[in-house]
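Request:
You are asked to prepare a plain-text protein record giving the amino acid sequence and the backbone structure tokens, at your earliest convenience.
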Amino acid sequence: LAPSYVSLYIMSAHGRTHHYVRNLKGRHTPRHYKQQLDIVKDILAELPRTTRVSDITAFETRQIAEDSGAQVIVQLMVKGEHVGVLFFGERQNGLPYSEQDTQLLSTTADELALAIQNGLRFDEIKSFNKRLRKEVSSATRELRHSNAQLHKIDEVKDEFLSIASHQLRTPLTSVKGYISLVLDGDAGPVNAQQRQLLDEA
């Protein structure tokens, strides 16, 4: 087709738009080509998927399309969802785009739209995997930290039980010793009821 330039806008799922320009004439691309999508986005729904600007019958719509500086506008869609828009500048040989040219672009647009959508999905999966790895790493760090704290708490509990059992064992040993002395009769005779109570103690 030998257009003077091709301008491609890709819409990502996150609402971001990426712009790519290929200037085939080798001269500087006018700055307003970067604003093409803003110029025509309100009329895209009115246009066929592949449109020669000269074929647009509605005067106001054609005027907006002409302001974009494009000769052909190709909407890249998959199942009714916009994945991108292509703008083709005038042809380098000065001839208008023919019906066969627009048919070729329509056929190519379907394949290109699928390729772009697949590329976007691949990027989303890569991004999701990266985010997932980050979150798993963060959760693992938190679990390690929590585990270390649990070990500390466990050590404190063991230490407390050790101290408590030692502190309790000392007076209990004394109590047990004195009860044995009384049971053995070292403090005088013990009747049957007293012996039963002391045995319980």
User: Anything to note?
Assistant: The first strand starts at residue 5 and ends at 11.
